[in-house]
Design a protein that fits this description.
single chain, 98 residues, alpha+beta, 2 helices
């Protein structure tokens, strides 16, 4: 196997492992500012409403949902971005796309 391919596989593995951890930690630090609930930590947050029915979640549940959504979306974007750069670099250096 080519050294370029092995290097990019290592980089992709590193991004796949480290990005979710870093995003979850940074989002956890900032989510208190992103999701402000009235009533303090024991308060509830109205997530959806239909007619007279409402869906309420606790503040901690909403914060966990926000952290998870940011982590999953950001990780997927980072992995796809690195994979695209890797493919472009490997095909460009091997003369596959000229």
């Amino acid at each position: 196997m080519n050294r370029d391919v092995l290097g990019w596989l290592g980089a992709l593995l590193g991004v796949t492992i480290l990005t979710p951890v870093v995003l979850y930690l940074f989002t956890g630090a900032a989510v208190g500012f992103l999701v402000a609930c009235s009533g303090g930590p024991q308060g509830t947050f109205v997530v959806g409403a239909s007619g007279s029915e409402t869906l309420q979640l606790s503040c901690s549940a909403v914060r966990t949902l926000v952290k998870t959504a940011v982590t999953v979306g950001g990780s997927a974007a980072a992995v796809v971005g690195v994979a695209m750069v890797a493919v472009a670099d490997i095909t460009g250096s091997s003369g596959g796309m000229r």
